[in-house]
Structure formats: C-alpha cells, structure tokens
From TrEMBL:
Pathway: Amino-acid biosynthesis. It comes from Intestinicryptomonas porci. Residues 20-127 form the Dihydroprymidine dehydrogenase domain. Residues 142-314, 382-455 form the FAD/NAD(P)-binding domain. InterPro entries: DPD_II, FAD/NAD-bd_sf, FAD/NAD-binding_dom, Glut_synth_ssu1, Glutamate_Synthase, Helical_ferredxn. It comes from the Bacteria. This is Glutamate synthase subunit beta. The keyword Amino-acid biosynthesis applies. Gene3D superfamilies: Alpha-helical ferredoxin, FAD/NAD(P)-binding domain. It holds the Pfam family Pyr_redox_2.
Length: 471
C-alpha cells in the first residue's frame, strides 16, 4: 500500500457537459469505489504534512483516508467531524492546501483529499449520520454572533456545542454570507447551506435575519442583552480602481455582480440587477473571484469575456520560490476558465472611455516585470504598448481592503489595524471589553477554510472568557 501512490494514477475532477446552460454543480462526482481506490494513494505518513502544515483545521487526513480505504465510512465521518464542522463547504470550495502539502506529491501527484472529504460528508448525510451539535450542559451564558458567513457559522456551532445560548444576527435575508451571496451556485449549491442551517436551528441556535447591527439595532444594546458579542462581519470593503472614467455606468465591484445573480436564483429578486447578456465583459483581477465572475458571465450569455491581471503569468507548475510543502506559486485554471473567455497577464489599466455616460472600453498598457527570488517584484510600463479592450460591462475583482466602514464598525468604536481590519488581542478580543472578532474581519480577506478555523478558535476563547469571568 505504501507504493500505491506510484501505481494508481491520480484522478482529477471531471466536469459535466452542457454545464454553462445552468447554474448547477459543475463537477461529476466519482463513485465510492473510485474514491476508495484514490484513498489508497495516501502514504499514511507518520508526520503528516497535509494535517500539520496544510490544513488550517488540522483534519486527521491519513486516518480518514485509511477508513475510506477500508470501507468504514461512518468511522471516517467521525474522524473528520472532530475537527471540521462543515466538510460539505470545504470539500466544494476549498483550494485544498492539504493537497499542496501531501507527501505523495513529491515523487508523484498528491492524494485527492478534497474528493475523499466530499464522499465522506455526503455519505454521512445520506445515511443520516449528521446530527445537530448541541450540549446537555447549559452555561446560562448568551452570545450574539454578528454575521452568518463561514466564520460566524463556525463560531455559533462551536459555542452551541459548548453549552452556550447563541443568536446569530444577519443583515441579509438568508444565512451564509459569502457562501450564499459571493460564491456561485455552480461551485456551491445553496441547498447545501440550507441543510446545515436547519441542523443548527435544531441544535438550538437562533437566527435573526434582515437585522443590520449598527443600524437596526446598536452594538451597545446587544452588549447589554448578551454576555459576549462576536463580530464575524467579513472584510467587504472592495479595492477600487481610481482611474479616469471610473464614474461611468457599467463598472461594478465583483460582489455586486455575484450578489445580483445569487439573489435572482434564490427568488429574493425578480430580476437581475446587473446582467452580462449580449455584452462584452471585462474582468479586472485574475483571482478566484474573477474566475467566479467569468463563469457567471458566460452563463448569463455574455458576448465575450476577457479577464486581465496586472501580475505576470505564473509558471505552469510549482515554482522553486515555493518549495514543498508550501502553497505553490503556479498558474491555476478553474472550471470556469475551461468554459470560455480569455486571460491576459501583465496588463495595467490606464483609463475607461465611454459613450452617453456608459463604459465602452478600457485603455490599457503592457507591463514588464522584474523578479526577485523567482517572484515578481516591480514593473514598468512598456512604451508604445497602449491598446484598448472593448467592454460594456466591467467587473472589478481586485480583492478587499478591510471591513466596511460606517455602520457597525463606526457604531462600535472598535480600534482598527493598519490593514483596515478589527484589531484583536491573542484571545480574539477587540478594544471593547466583551466584544470579539474573527475571520476576515480580524485577519483580512482569506479562504473559507481559514474563516471556519478562526470561528472555532474564537468560540473556544469566548468559552475561556466566561470561565475566567464568573457571573
């Protein structure tokens, strides 16, 4: 078995035909037999870098791989559920940091950990093994969790299992945050979120929707009504592109576009507020959010889609600047990239041009990068390289600069760090006593799996806070 990773080829994800005609899950999920065979590729390392270095949740990957290999799916779920509260989310949207740190990836290709995790959790749901996580112990303490994204849900779930009463306040109409309103259905269908929320409600967690804390209700009020407050509000302040013509119509931030589609599909909105249909679409930003916008624009019927990135094109395989087990610096191609559109690298944006107040093109320049230790460091514009990209819809996908200003943040008076996020101590407490923060709100925009890990850690620190601050 120790050499199976050399004899059994890795089976990469497969995508269904005709997937751009709808917003359903794009992957063809392998059978349990195929997953069990893939689990044999795990080396069962004594020192498992996938667990200790790769996975932010510390999942016991070799152990659940061995259980799947032996056909013990219930045991595999028990192992996974110890560390991971929402495997159904991470097995769909996590980039699999664990696979980058897999020892089998050194002489061969890494184990398909993400696919194995998916089979474990879906098998557990199908067989009725996933139960509400509550506690027979009741502490008498009440916690208000602000925000129901991955960090907020993880925090609420853990607090409930520790015996505390939890109420989650969500400014939108439904729970999920980024999971529901930022990640397209073709990557994460929303019934998957609803399934988990139903279990959390059954466990005793209360959800209050359409409540904008800082506007509809003050933080001071919640501090009086609850023993602790957890700010899990994400980092939703988008990075803008302040160039000439930015005021033209047809230029939108990525989450405006993705939120519009999500609300339309769920029935929260009767029509698309932003549509790519029959338009030349320009996506500025080469990351995952840009990829999500690309796949969404194609499904909406865009005439053409171009995705540009200021950074140079990464190498096709792991670069020496990020040796194993680091998350590798390399070019990544998503399912959306395989569906159409084109990508351009080393492109600088100069100005937008428009007609009748609406954007019609971007004037751009080619860039020349200099490298240091294998990574891009500085650039200069190439003289005479000016060109134009036609676009009636421009989507800005350049990341986020911190928490949203005003509203709750202004109302709270909490201190911000130089990175524009809530400043917290080692126990996740903000500058306001009894008010905590975690996830993107405290660390800056990152991965769903890191937000989940942060939410769990925050819950444990709030539990410690209660034990050292007896009523």
């Amino acid at each position: 078995m120790l050499k199976d990773f050399l004899q059994i080829p890795r089976r990469n994800p497969q995508y269904r035909a005709g997937r751009t005609e709808d917003f359903k899950d794009v992957e063809i999920r392998p059978s349990r037999e195929i997953v069990a065979e893939q689990s044999k590729r795990c080396m069962g390392c004594g020192i498992a870098f996938c667990n200790a270095y790769g996975c932010p949740l510390g999942n016991s990957i070799p152990e659940f791989n061995a259980a799947v290999c032996g056909g013990r799916m219930e045991y595999a779920y028990k192992i996974l559920s110890i560390t991971s509260p929402f495997p159904e989310f991470t097995s769909r949207v996590c980039p699999a940091l664990c696979e980058a740190a897999c020892c089998a990836g050194l002489p061969s290709e890494p184990t398909t950990i993400k696919q194995i995790e998916y089979e474990i959790i879906e098998s557990a749901f199908n067989e009725g093994l996933v139960k509400p996580r509550s506690s027979a112990f009741h502490s008498g303490r009440r916690v208000a969790v602000i925000g129901s994204g991955p960090a907020g849900l993880a925090c609420a779930d853990k607090l409930c299992s520790l015996g505390h009463e939890v109420c989650v306040f969500e400014k939108r109409h439904r729970a999920g945050g980024l999971l529901r309103y930022g990640i397209p259905n073709f990557k994460l269908e929303k019934n998957v979120i609803d399934r988990r929320i139903a279990l959390m409600c059954e466990a005793g967690i209360t959800f209050e929707y359409d409540v904008d804390v800082g506007s509809d209700v003050s933080l001071d009020f919640l501090k009086r009504k609850f023993d602790a407050v957890a700010l899990c509000i994400g980092a939703e302040e988008p990075r803008d592109l302040k160039i000439k013509g930015r005021e033209l119509g047809g230029i939108h931030f990525a989450l405006e576009f993705l939120n519009s589609q999500a609300r339309f599909l769920s029935g929260e909105s009767d029509s698309l507020k932003i549509s790519a249909k029959d338009k030349n679409v320009l996506i500025i930003g080469g990351g995952d959010t840009g990829s999500d916008c690309l796949g969404t624009a194609i499904r909406q019927g865009a005439k053409s889609v171009v995705q540009i990135e200021i950074m140079p094109e990464p190498p096709s395989s792991r670069d020496s600047s990020t040796p194993w087990p680091m998350w590798e610096y390399k070019k990544r191609t998503s399912s959306s990239h395989l569906e159409g559109g084109s990508r351009m690298w080393s492109v600088g944006s100069s100005e937008f041009s428009g007609e009748n107040g609406m954007v019609c093109a971007l004037k751009a320049k080619r860039l020349k990068w200099t490298f240091e230790n294998g990574r891009p460091k500085t650039f200069e514009e190439i003289e005479g390289s000016d060109f134009e990209i036609k676009a009636e819809l421009v989507l800005l996908c350049m990341g986020f600069t911190g928490v949203k200003r005003g509203g709750l943040v202004e109302d709270s008076g909490a201190e911000l760090s130089t990175r524009g996020v809530l400043k917290v101590s080692s126990d996740f407490q903000t500058s306001i006593g009894g008010v905590f923060a975690c996830g993107d709100a405290a660390s800056g925009a990152s991965l769903v799996v890191r937000a989940i890990a942060s939410g769990r850690n925050l819950a444990e620190n709030i539990d410690k806070f209660f034990k050292t601050n007896v009523k």
